[in-house]
Amino acid sequence: MKVKSIRNIRIKTKLLFLGGVSILGLVFIGAESIITARQINQASTEISQSWVPAIIIAEELNTETSDYRIKEFYHAITHDQETMDHLEKEMMAVRDEIDAAFTEYEQNYITDETDRELMENARAYWDRYLEYSDRLLPISRGNDNEESLKMIIGESRLLFDEASGNFLKMAEFNRLGAEAASVRGDQLYARLARVKIVSICLIALMITMLVIYIIIAIDKPVKAIVEGTRRVSNGDLDVYLPYDSEDEIGILTDSVNQLIERLKNIIDDEKYLFREIGSENFEVKSTCEQAYRGDFAPILYSIASLMSRLDIAKQKKEELKKRLEERVAAELIAEKKLAEEAKLAEEKKLAEEMQSAGENTTPDREQAGEETKKDGSRTMDASDEEGRLS
């Protein structure tokens, strides 16, 4: 399948393509923003729902174990059995809270094996501490304060320090995890910002180039059409509009070129026809009858009708001229005939006069003969003159 050049795509399609690119660009930026925002939200959720609660539990474990040790220390130094009973109840409640905290941490907030190992170590040291505490409390209840204090500041302290240290390690591990998640969120945000900037720049550049191209593709040929039609309106038909595309502008340009060519052919043909008509050639034919299409057809019909009427007028003129010539010739012949008849009548009259004069005397006859000769000469001269005039 032949792929059309962008120049040959219709203007509507070009504008739709520009709009499609803009929409796709916005969709891409929006999708990238949503994906990155979701990742940032996951990092934030991980911090707020995993790392921070784990830190809180680890710190609460450390605090509650400290509370337990404080109560245990009070138990070792007091001598009041009722106080001891009350302290033991509180210590058992603290134990239950610590066990619940361990269970919650293990079920919900362990992230990897390192975290699990830290939790198990802390619990192991705490269990050892409780075992030692279970041996210490009966001694304290027996009011052996010296022995109980010795146990508290001795091995009990070491076990407590180990357990407390592991709780602090758990808290530090989760704090570092929260910081890492925060850094990851910052990195995601930075990546989102970079991607947005690059995407916006690329899409803006693409849209700008398309807009500039479409403006040039429309503005330049339209200006050429305006200039060409202005020249045509001023009578200049030596105009050709170059534009090699198949869009609406190209079709319009081609139509204008065809119109100019038809006008030029029609005008040249009319010059030729009227020149031949001026030479009284009424049988001349148009050299481009195909140009007289549509509303131009009546022009050729009018010219043909004019030639037909002029041809008829010419024939009538020639016929009238011929009749006039024949009439003039007939009149000349009639005048000549009348002149000849007049001449003959004159000669006959002279002959009769000469005959009657012959009967007179000789002198008179001679005199009359001389006069007759003179008159005859004059008559002959007059007849010759009339013949020449005829």
From TrEMBL:
Gene3D superfamilies, sorted: 6.10.340.10
Region described as Disordered: 347-390
GO terms under cellular component: plasma membrane
Extent of Basic and acidic residues compositional bias: 362-378
The keyword Mitochondrion is annotated on this UniProt entry: no
Family classification: Belongs to the methyl-accepting chemotaxis (MCP) protein family.
Descriptive protein name: HAMP domain-containing protein
Organism name: Hungatella hathewayi
Taxonomic lineage from the root: Bacteria, Bacillati, Bacillota, Clostridia, Lachnospirales
